[in-house]
Write a structure and sequence with these properties.
By secondary structure, the protein is α+β, with helices and mostly antiparallel strands. Helices cover 35% and strands 21% of the residues. The protein contains 10 helices and 13 strands. Strands 8, 9, 10, 11, 12 and 13 form a 6-stranded antiparallel β-sheet that branches. A 4-stranded antiparallel β-sheet has the order 4-7-5-6, covered by helices on one side. Strand 8 and strand 9 form a beta hairpin. Helix 1 packs across helix 10. The protein starts with a strand and ends with a helix.
């Protein structure tokens, strides 16, 4: 490994910069411990073209959100002919777009909650009543191209929906308005062709928001998930189908909820999930039998075509 030089792309300028800095630092440390030559590369202050003269063998993308998870940096690395971890341009772009992901899943018969799409350019407050009526009176509002639950809000009145949309339009021109799902939330990490053990997230908050993910001490993560063997295999199979449907590859995570009636509902695909030692993919990998450095190593070797 001492002959392989990896640039860890992290930081960036998205709303998820702080999370990305933590992921990049953790990945960099693991790579150093494994014996790789490592260059931490904050894309906010450095130009990607520098990589070409640095004799980089592979880039580990630890950039979350726009610019790093949406196909942009992947396209630049393709142009520079530098191998990189995770999904390609199309898989990254489709997975990052919550609306188009759901349209694809619906088109091929995979389960996902009913939804409407709001556009900043033509949304009118008087549309809110009709949207609520179509979606059974209670919705989740999500910027279509953000992660980490940024800009998300629940709405069950016209006033709440208008306010939630105005807030979300501050992050994105396009906003997903999804029918509210009553039920527990799960996530399935994907590594190569494997779906890792399912994680069940529990929070006393109204939903699994940014605070529940990164700031709260009351959020609980159950892995094993305590699902029956049949249900565990069912959600893993669904996650793999959803992952492949958006052309995601390499590694990532699929978020799913279960309705009160016991039906799975796909939420989204994350192609560059958090990668600190306490993030969800490493939690699942640990139960699967992989240490954090082993997980990082496997992701790099897949990018190099060696695993």
């Amino acid at each position: 490994m001492s002959l392989i030089k990896v640039a860890v792309l992290y930081g960036g300028e998205s709303a998820e910069r702080e999370v990305s800095l933590r992921s990049g630092e953790a990945v960099g440390k693991a790579l150093i411990d494994l014996g790789y030559k490592v260059e931490l590369f904050d894309t906010k202050s450095r130009d990607l073209s520098e990589l070409k003269s640095m004799n980089i063998d592979c880039t580990f993308i630890a950039l979350h959100g726009r610019g790093g998870e949406d196909g942009c940096v992947q396209g630049a690395l393709e142009y520079l002919q530098i191998p990189y971890t995770g999904s390609g341009v199309l898989g990254s772009a489709l997975s990052m777009d919550k609306t188009r992901s759901k349209q694809i899943w619906r088109a091929i018969g995979l389960p996902t909650a009913n939804f409407e799409v709001g556009y900043k350019s033509d949304f009118k407050p008087q549309d809110a009543q009709q949207i609520l009526a179509k979606l059974n009176g209670k919705v989740m509002v999500k910027p279509a191209h953000e992660g980490s639950s940024i800009g998300m809000a629940k709405a069950e009145s016209v006033e709440q929906l208008v306010n939630a949309l105005e807030e979300a339009f501050g992050f994105d021109e396009q906003v997903l308005i999804e029918e509210w799902i009553n039920g527990p939330e799960y996530t399935v990490a994907v590594l190569g062709n494997d779906a890792l053990p399912v994680i069940h997230m529990e929070t006393p908050r109204e939903f699994y928001d940014y605070e529940a993910k990164y700031q709260s001490n009351s959020t609980q993560y159950h892995c094993p998930s305590h699902l029956s063997e049949v249900d565990e295999k069912s959600i893993q199979a669904l996650a793999l189908k959803a992952f492949k449907a958006t052309n995601a590859e390499g590694w990532g995570r699929v978020d799913v909820m279960r309705t009160a009636e016991g039906e799975w509902q796909l939420l989204e695909v994350n192609t560059v999930p958090g990668m600190t030692e306490t993030s969800l993919v490493p939690k699942a990998a640990k139960v699967f039998g992989l240490t954090f450095p082993q997980l990082v190593d496997k992701i790099v070797l897949m990018a190099l075509g060696e695993n």
